[in-house]
Amino acid sequence: VFCLPSVTALNGDAEGLPIVLLEAQASGIPVVTSALGGNHEGIVHGETGFTFAERDVDELAARVSELLVDDQLATRMGAAGPTFVARKFDMRLCTRDLESLYDDLRAKFNGRDLVR
Fold first, then answer.
1. Which residues are registered as beta bridge partners of 38?
2. Cα separation of 71 and 67, whole Å?
3. Hey, what's the torsion of the CAs at 15, 20, 22, 24, to 10 degrees?
4. Under 8 Å CB-to-CB from 78, ≥6 apart: which residues?
5. Distance CA 5, CA 98 (A)
6. What is the pTM of this model?
7. CA–CA separation, 85 vs 25, rounded Å?
8. Residue 29: which residues within 8 A CB-CB, separation 6 or more?
9. Rg of the chain, C-alpha, whole Å
10. pLDDT score of 113
């Protein structure tokens, strides 16, 4: 089990998408996290691991404990991780999507100079 608790700073600064969450899942390790970026795009709650609210220590402990005592659950989540990461974060697919976004923006603004 890989556990990444995270808390938003007083100035509002919060973790984006922690790459370590993707690395753990790609390695077949179920994750438990409160990282905001991880909660929204870097994990499939209940499939590749669990998310929990910031500062919810009881939920953190419950989810880690659940994975430690339920070998079938941990194995299933661990097996789902590499597939999820490969599907969603493959460099070729991400590059294709980014280039497509650039093409769409170029077409939308039709060469107008956007720098002022």
1. none
2. 7
3. -140
4. 28, 29, 30
5. 30
6. 0.80
7. 7
8. 1, 2, 78, 81
9. 18
10. 63
Residue 110: its pLDDT value, please?
A: 78
Closest CA to 67 of 92, 46, 53, 85: 46
Rounded to whole angstroms, the maximal C-alpha distance in the chain is 59
Each residue's pLDDT tens digit, 51-95: 999 999 999 999 999 999 999 999 999 999 999 999 999 889 889
28 — alpha (psi -120 to 50), left (phi > 0) or beta? left
What is the end-to-end Cα distance of the chain in Å, rounded? 50
Distances (CA, A) of 66 to 27, 74, 98: 20, 9, 38
pLDDT tens column, 10-41: 998 888 888 999 999 999 999 999 987 767 78
Q: Is the dihedral angle over the CA atoms 9, 13, 18, 19 positive or is it negative?
A: negative
Quote the tokens at residue 65: 């404990």
Q: How far is CA 97 from the centre of its chain?
A: 18
The structure tokens listed for 60 are: 């953190």
